[in-house]
Amino acid sequence: MINLYSFVSLSITSFLSIIFLDSLAKRLGIFEMPQKIKIHKEKVTKTSGFGIILIIINSFLIFDYSNELNYSLNILIFFVLIGFYDDIKDLNASTKMILMVIPTFFYIFKTGLVTSLGQYYNFSIELKSMSIFFSFCCILLLTNAFNYIDGMDGLLGTISIISLSFFIIFLPVDQINFIMPFIIFLGIFLIFNLNLIKSLPKVFIGDSGSLGIGFLFCIIIINYTQNFDYLHESVAIWPVAFIVYEFLTINIIRIKIKKKIFDRDLNFIFNKFLENNSKFKTLVLCNMINLFFCLVGYFFYYTQFYEVSICLFIIFYFAYLFLRVRQMKI
């Protein structure tokens, strides 16, 4: 279990890394510039996500992780670096995807292969020869889904903290040390991102952060459903339901209105909420949706109605898609 020393150490590392990275970004001119397809109206540095690497290094010094988690965190570093490179060079979507395939390949063949979708009554869903393909698709989808949702102050951070907290509730005490450093980092980041202390600079987490956090969730779900039997597969998907639903829906909407799926726009759910609500209320609404899905997962964890869980996950998606299409009036 994380102690006071660990908490203070991780908090200081998070705070100082964000301060340093903001200063470095200003010197190098690494800013997220205002655009028509973005909400913010001023240029803001976007390198804070690189601080995740410093948090990982600090965690290695403090905690003793399993070989699987140690290897996974090293792969996570590569995802952060790819995102950081994207923040600097503004890569196109296809180039970024190709770069992400490389660490995904090493992760799958070492410790991140999804071989089963769970045990249901007297049968289990085994992927067999589809395991590699399915694992690739899921990791790339979920990692990019977090990248998609990072378009409004506080949204990625608050949603991630709520969903990470879901996993902490159900994991053994000795596994909490793996997740807590990232919650601490995101909590410190939100102080800057939401300008909660006016004397501190406003910062963005950037693609380095969104890709890193997205892959972190891949590690958690795969490790605790495939390598260790701590969570059932049909339960572990609920904390990322909102992220996945929105990712799939926004791409369907883009296809429906005949736009390229990688073209940025203002059709995300938070953009639509902002048309009639304040930023604070929009943030609350999005987090309430995410919290609802987490509570559904909480219910199925204790009832163990795994067959109902997986069916309801699919039904809820089509309901979500229907409501979002109505919201778009298309």
Write up what this structure looks like:
This protein has helices at 4-28, 51-62, 67-89, 93-110, 131-149, 155-170, 173-193, 206-227, 233-236, 241-256, 269-274, 279-303, 306-328, and strands spanning 31-32, 44-45, 116-120, 123-126. The protein is globular, with a radius of gyration of 19 Å. It is mainly α and 330 residues long. The longest helix has 25 residues, at 4-28. The chain has one domain (4-328). Strands 1-2 form a two-stranded antiparallel ribbon. A two-stranded antiparallel sheet has the order 3-4. 70% of the residues lie in helices and 4% in strands. α2 packs antiparallel against α7. The protein has 13 helices and four strands. A hairpin with a 2-residue loop joins β3 and β4.
Largest sheet, in brief, is:
2 strands, antiparallel
Helix content: 55-70%
Distance linking N and C termini:
50 Å
Walk across the major sheet and give the strand order. Answer: 1-2
**Oligomeric form of this entry?**
single chain
Describe the global form. Answer: globular
Kindly estimate the percentage of residues that lie in beta strands according to DSSP: under 5%
Total tally of structural domains: 1
Poorly predicted regions are: none
Whole-number mean pLDDT:
92
Helical element count? 13
The count of DSSP E runs of length 2 or more, i.e. the number of strands, is 4
Helix and strand pattern: HEEHHHEEHHHHHHHHH
Cα-atom Rg, whole angstroms? 19 Å
